Amino acid sequence: MKRRRSIDLVVLNVGGTKFETSAATLARCSSYFERMFSGDWHTLDDEVWLDMDADSFKVLLSCMRRRTVLLPEDPDLFARALLDAEYLGCDWLIDEVKQTVQRRLGVEATADAFDTQHGGLRDALRNSAVLPGLFFHSPAPKDVAIKQIVQAGEFDRLDFMGERSADGPIVKRIACYALVEREGKTTVEPVLSHHMDEEAHASSEGMLNLASEFASGMEGTLVPLGVSRYAPAAFGFTTRSSFTHRVLREPITPGERPSMEEQLQRLGQEGYRAISSWSSPDGEARVLMEKATPRHAAAQ
């Protein structure tokens, strides 16, 4: 049997086109090649024949050489390169593609979550809006209307937990609160300030973001844990409170829901207080309610 070359040079014949690379490059990125070069059944002096398209394998080999996802936007070439990756066992590459799509959607950024939502790689490739669409571009933003801005407390913060925050929550300063209308629903959303942050949000063009925009734009999934208000006290301690918000709507039709007065009374009994009011375009009265819950005291 022939002895291996010292430089581990491998010649690949892919559909009649020859490529040269190292066995180490192939084996560390592909379970197919790892098995091929792990035993004595193949010598590196032998030419390796692959019944694949040369153009798609060229893309895949470039990814393996750099251990980085470098895929083309051309849908056909993108799909063939990923199917080659699946056949050759380049799971790391496929998982990164799936996680990128999930991050753009602002949902759980795992390969398993991708498979649950999109039916796996092959099903996703049948829908060009998913692959390659969502790999290269974020989904079109939903219609968002900011109806009113409500002042935030000086020490209001929003805590996030996610893949990048294993050592503790990521804490962002809240500049104000926005009363946001999305698809007919009104919610209260913190507006985050990145001024003087050590690491500004890379995808933000300005210094302010809605919390949902910040979370979906970050690498890795971020889940808001809740709003905290830090109130400095004597002796260098901080009292921390968690805040929740509710938006009350005046019923348009009598009996449709409790009256505004009844809603205010019920939430008042639960510890909420009214902090702002406004009218929707159709004249419906709305009130923003806030409730504070002390969480713990911690040294600054």
Key structural traits:
three-stranded mixed sheet, elongated, Potassium Channel Kv1.1, Chain A, 2 domains, disordered C terminus, single chain
Give the overall average pLDDT.
77
Count of all domains: 2
Distance between the termini: 70 Å
**Assembly level:** single chain
Number of E-state strands: 12
Please give the share of residues in helix.
Answer: 25-40%
Radius of gyration: 27 Å
Overall body shape: elongated
Pattern of helices and strands: EEHHEHHHHHHEEEEEHEEHEE
Helical/strand content category: alpha+beta
Instruction: Supply the number of helical segments.
Output: 10
Query: How much of the residues is beta strand, in percent?
Result: 25-35%
Q: Are there runs of 5+ residues with pLDDT below 50, and where?
A: 196-206, 233-239, 296-300
Characterize the biggest β-sheet. 9 strands, antiparallel
